[in-house]
UniProtKB/TrEMBL annotation:
Belongs to the enoyl-CoA hydratase/isomerase family. It comes from Aurantiacibacter gilvus. The keyword Lyase applies. This is p-hydroxycinnamoyl CoA hydratase/lyase. PANTHER family: ENOYL-COA HYDRATASE (PTHR42964), POLYKETIDE BIOSYNTHESIS ENOYL-COA HYDRATASE PKSH-RELATED (PTHR42964:SF1). GO terms for molecular function: feruloyl-CoA hydratase/lyase activity. The keyword Lyase applies. It comes from the Bacteria. Gene3D superfamilies: 2-enoyl-CoA Hydratase, Chain A, domain 1, 6.10.250.2850. CDD domains: crotonase-like.
Amino acid sequence: MAKAPSQPDPRPQEDTVKYEVVDGVAWVYFNRPDKRNCMSPKLNRQMKIVIEDLEFRDDVQVLVLTGEGSAWSAGMDLLEYFRMAEQEGLHAIRSNQREAYSWWERLRWFEKPTVAMINGWCFGGAYGPLFACDLAYCSDDAQFGLSEINWAILPGGGASKVAAELLPFRDAMYHAMMGENLTGPEAAKLRMVNESLPADKLKERVLEVCEVLKKKDSQALRATKWAMRRVTEMTYDNAEDYLIRAQEALNQFGGLESRKEATRQFLDAKTFKPGLGAFDKSTLDKD
Ligand code: ACO
């Protein structure tokens, strides 16, 4: 028997995202498993609130974005984000776009390192937050797709840009035009994600990565992740200049003290080697 037509999700906005902070890691979940975590206006609004709340909390050093249930996110909500807004008019369409794009933008420039932990379906609009995260790890049974072409739209909301940024040209073209999904290992081979792992090893690996990130100087990490994004759009000369300025700005945020202490541990105390891991930052007041 065919299922009844879909109805708007009656759950309150607060329920669409859940999170917990454990040992310095904020685990943030798309939380509409019954709807494969597709992004409704309510979810987009709530994500922005959650992300902004977590950004400056002292107990958060890394943010991991993952999904409850079988999906990471099945993209934009075709009912609540598209159809209902189109029935309401242009003001609703624009308002939905702004709410979605603005939390992806906040995540792209989040003050702390971010990791996408893709546990299942990842479609279309979900490429926005996927790209916004600095690192990405998926389970082997995850599926990635630009399904837009399958329902007669183009990959908007930045999705085309994400494919063009992350994939080689021919692969991006094929991916956007064919509407076929990539498995986790295929996505890893094409470098859409850092690694694909068996589902039962995924969290363990992400935790390992978080532990390494937690040991780094937080100000230097922020400067590094922002620099890596900025320089992709610069000429070599502009990048060189920007990086000098960015390092000088980092010095104003305690970077000089960190560097001096790290150098002391290497050159004088001989307790650490920069080529083999992070310096011991516990001796500093900050961080
Ligand atoms: N928008 C609205 N509702 C959705 C979406 C979505 N993107 N994805 C899933 N749902 C809903 C389904 O309509 C269904 O709702 P119902 O309970 O009211 O019937 C519920 O979530 C469960 O979905 P099923 O299709 O039954 O789940 P299944 O596990 O069989 O399939 C799959 C999962 C493959 C992800 C399928 O739901 C799907 O194709 N979703 C759409 C994916 C997509 O193309 N997203 C848009 C990308 S383009 C863009 O984001 C701009």
